Amino acid sequence: MERARAAAALCRRLPRRTIQRVAALVDSPLVLGRHSFTSRLFLGTGKYPSMESMVEALALSGTQCVTVAVRRLQLGVPQGKSLLDYLPRDTYVLLPNTAGCFDADHAVRTALLGRELGMGDLVKLEVLGDPQTLLPDPIGTLDAAKVLVKEGFTVLCYTSDDPVLAKRLEDAGVTAVMPAGAPIGSGQGILNPNNIRIILERATVPVIVDAGVGTASDVAIAFELGAQGVLLNTGVASAKDPVRMARAMKAAAEAGRDAFLAGRIPKKLYATASSPTSGMIAGE
Amino acid sequence: MSAPMLCITVNDEPTSLPSPSTVADLVARLGLRPDQVAVERNKVLVRRAEHATTTLCDGDRLEVVTFFGGG
Hints:
Structural class of chain A: alpha/beta
Strand order of the largest sheet of chain A: 5-4-3-10-9
Shape of chain B: globular
Largest interface: A-B, 38 and 25 residues
Oligomer: heterodimer
Largest sheet of chain A: 5 strands, parallel
Shape of chain A: globular
Number of helices of chain B: 1
Order of helices and strands of chain B: EEHEEE
Structural class of chain B: mainly beta
Distance between the termini of chain A: 56 Å
Number of strands of chain B: 5
Helix content of chain B: under 10%
Order of helices and strands of chain A: HHEEEHEEHEHEHEHEHEHH
Number of helices of chain A: 10
Strand content of chain B: 35-45%
Radius of gyration of chain A: 21 Å
Largest sheet of chain B: 5 strands, mixed
């Protein structure tokens, strides 16, 4: 509503040509295998204070693709309303993850179960090294990626911010590499932007920054660096007000992406005057 | 005389079922929604289309999973 009113106000004030030019400033969708997304934010579904806050946060984030975990059902408890009942399939593409897997075989089995549940080809592959750091196990990740690509999955691969590993994963046929900005759930932001830049410079597949996002500016920075997407969960779900934070993340994603597409100025050591340096009135 | 029973393990819990039983029978007996579970038998996925035709054997180890919130 607010946006529509703003657009109408703009139409009254600006020449038609300007309006047409502004309207043409659109982004291309992010294509991952046979999926196409106009929102470049990917949200997790874990750790929300309630299902209601999750539903509202997902809606305000504008995401079109959400991650879900594959876990054992609790037996002896009637299967009431489940997570899937809150995630309408015409609104969200499900991205099953292999979170919690510490070896390639376990991750592959989990991915196969996830595909059976979701009936989709997407998987967020993660093979972790140890439960304290939750850092990716590079060897297990690469092994599992090869198997899942062969199995016909569209593999979105969580990895460390190592440019060499990112390239190896790409060579293995993953659809997107997803370097961590910082450890999962740490909220530390993008610790090594230089590595992310190198990955971005060399990658020929989409790069989605996954993990470490603490607040909106982290999302903006990821997009300003050139990331094609950002995946986050804790930053929204564990915020004091997850719904408001989801809205902030959406705004940051749009701002960061727009800034990247606009092309930022180079950073310079010395000042450059913004006002004319000639035509000054007489001084002392 | 009672019907012969199958002893299997479901998500690490010992479970007995009348023999013969299929994966679909197990899912129904557990009161689960067939469209929202995936089943692995002895570490091999059982496709949903095969739940009704996959007969369980004594000692089978099953994993029954669904989606939970995650990132």
